[in-house]
Structure formats: C-alpha cells, structure tokens
Design a protein that fits this description.
Strand content: 15-25%
Radius of gyration: 23 Å
Number of strands: 12
Number of helices: 11
Helix content: 40-55%
Largest sheet: 6 strands, mixed
Length: 359
C-alpha cells in the first residue's frame, strides 16, 4: 500500500511539473514578478488539498480549511484534464508544427468538461429496482432507500444534506440504510455545523441504519460513531437487526477493521427462512454473500472512479464496481455514491440514491 501511495505521489508531482513547465512557457512574456506570483499560486493550489487534509482536526480556522479543501480538490480535476489535453496537443504538434497556442486549446477542452461534471454531480439520480424474494415479508411490498458515500464535511455541507433528506422523504421509505462513508475526512466540521441533525427529519417508519466505511475510520471511528448514534441513526458493526417486516439487516464493520467478523459467522445468527440484506461498504465480498445465499447485498465505496478515466480503473479493480447485478442467488447493488469525495465533479459516473422495492 505504501508503494502504491508513493507511486501516486510521483505521478501527481510529475503531472503538476509538466503542466507548470508548459504554462510558464506560454507566459514567458510576463514580467518576472508576475511569473513568481503565478508560480506561488500554482503550487499552493497543487498542494492545497493535502494541507487541508493534513491539518483537518482544527489546526486551521474552519473557513481557511474549507477554502483550501475546495481549491485543492478542484485543482486535481483541472490538472488531470489539462495534462491529458495538453499532452495530446503536444503530440499533435510533432506532426503539425504550425499548431500553436496549445495551452489555450487545452483550456477550451478542460473548462467545459468541468462545468458539465459539476452540473452532473449536482443532479443526483434516483435509481429504482424491484426485487422478488421467495421468502415471506409483512405486507406486499417493502421500500428500502439506500445511500452511500455522502462524505459530510468541507465538500458536502448541511445545506446539501438537507436537499438529500428531502429526496429521501419524497420516496416514502419504510427504512433507510446508509452503506458507509457518511463522514468525509474529519468529524470536526460536521459537529460544528450540527449537520447530522438533518437526519431527524427523515420520515421512515422503521428508522435509519448504517454501517461504517473507511472514511469513518480515517475521521476517527469512535468519535464518528458517537456523533452518528446521537443523531438517531442505528449503527451496525458486525451486528444484525430484524425489521418489523421480517427482513434481517446484517451490518458489517468496514474491512479497515482487520478483526471484523467473517460473514459466515454472522450468517449463523440469522433465520434463513426470512429475507437477508447484507450492508458492507467496500464491495470485496459479494461472491461470499452469494455463496452463503444472502438475498440482497449492498455496497458503495467505488464512486465508479468519479471522473474519467478513473472509472476504467474501478471497473478493472472490482468484479462489480457499480450498479445492479443478479448473481447465482444474491441480488447485488454497488452504489456510485449520493455525493462524492474531494473534487465536486462527476464525469463518467453519477450521483445516485437507490430505491429498492422488495416483494
């Protein structure tokens, strides 16, 4: 894992270095003081996100931390598409020497893409699936609303969460499940704005249940669980609850906990004559759920890469990186996330809430 992070940092620094060199070439006619000032701004933007994350627990004023987070996360996507576009035009320049103003051409591609990506992120979809289970439930249909990867903090604030709660209530759910990464990188901005109080407005007869994700561990698992539980959300960490409908929720702790219980030991504690729903943030164990004849498996975590071409990487990394799939027994859905981490853009992916009608 350490080598992977080092490799990513080398690629990130190298990409920023290439973009800096090309931008400075195009600005060679500016006075030296202007180029020095622009250089300082360039590298501040390049490292802003790392500064915000590194000093996320109150070392910086909240407004400054928020500004650094926004600038740094936007820069990551700007840099990605500028480098890809500029590299393409630089290669074309080898064959078409008259091709000039390549930085401007790259900007002409990058900025519209970012505008599209932001609008796409701000317009989450409601995905609907119907699942027939050959096991008894109370009533004809039971409606479950599932969300994941809200990432509350500097990127997703209380106003965003209020909008999501309104979306949930419009579906008139019987139960709401949150499949990890409700918190982003720190509980501090969430607690400061009392963001979790918005969940008290959720209208779900059987309540709200949640399992942790890797970001709850990044943010401090015990503090996160304390704040989340205080908001009325029932946290499941390697535990099981039977809903009034007879559906059994099996909530797994995140795989960041190396001592979490294996799924087969949890399944020994359920009634196999009743429907079973596994909530597991990271989608690594869907095949295990299928082998144990779990009825429904819900995961998140992947964001489906969030921006192209990273969605190609997640599609390779995970056997099921997004969407619905019927395995031999298990109905599995991997959510791309209601919100997102870091850059506020969705290019090649979507923000989504999933409405599951169980019959």
């Amino acid at each position: 894992m350490m080598w992977a992070w080092l490799a990513m940092m080398v690629v990130y620094l190298g990409s920023n270095g290439y973009l800096y060199w090309r931008v400075m070439q195009s600005l060679a006619g500016l006075p030296l003081p202007a180029r020095i000032a622009l250089s300082a701004l360039f590298w501040l933007a390049a490292f802003a996100l790392f500064i915000a994350i590194g000093l996320r627990d109150g070392s910086l004023p909240s407004s400054l931390s928020h500004a650094l987070f926004v600038v740094g996360s936007v820069w990551m996507v700007f840099m990605l598409y500028m480098v890809l576009s500029l590299a393409l035009f630089d290669i074309l320049h080898l064959f078409i020497p008259a091709l000039q103003h390549r930085v401007l051409y790259a900007l002409a591609i990058t900025l519209p893409l970012m505008i599209y990506g932001y609008i796409n992120y701000r317009m989450p979809r409601t995905e609907r699936i119907e699942i027939d289970i050959e096991k008894p439930i109370e009533g004809d249909t039971y409606r479950m609303v599932a969300i994941s990867d809200v990432h509350l903090g500097h990127g997703t604030d209380r106003q965003d969460l209020a909008r999501y709660v309104d979306m949930i209530n419009e579906q008139k759910p019987d139960v709401v499940v949150i499949v990890g990464d409700l918190i982003d990188n720190s509980i501090a901005p969430v607690a400061e704005a009392s963001m979790l109080d918005e969940f008290r407005r959720v209208e779900a007869r059987d309540g709200i249940y949640m399992v942790p994700g890797n970001h709850e561990y990044i943010s401090g698992i015990e503090r996160c669980m304390e704040h989340i539980s205080d908001s009325g959300i029932v946290v499941l960490r390697d535990s099981i609850v039977e809903l009034p409908s007879g559906i059994q929720l099996i909530g797994r702790d995140d795989r960041m906990n190396k001592r979490r219980k294996p799924l087969d030991s949890l399944m020994m504690c359920v009634d196999n004559r009743r429907p079973t729903v596994v909530l597991d943030h990271q989608p690594y164990d869907i095949a295990t759920s299928d082998s144990l004849k779990v009825d429904i498996h819900l995961s998140g975590h992947t964001h489906r890469g969030q921006v192209w071409p990273l969605n190609w990487a997640t599609d390779i990394m995970y056997e099921q990186s997004h969407g619905y799939r019927k395995w031999s027994h298990t109905h599995a859905y991997v959510m791309e996330g209601l919100s997102l981490w870091g850059p506020p853009f969705r290019i090649g992916s979507k923000s989504e809430m999933v409405v599951i009608d169980i019959e």
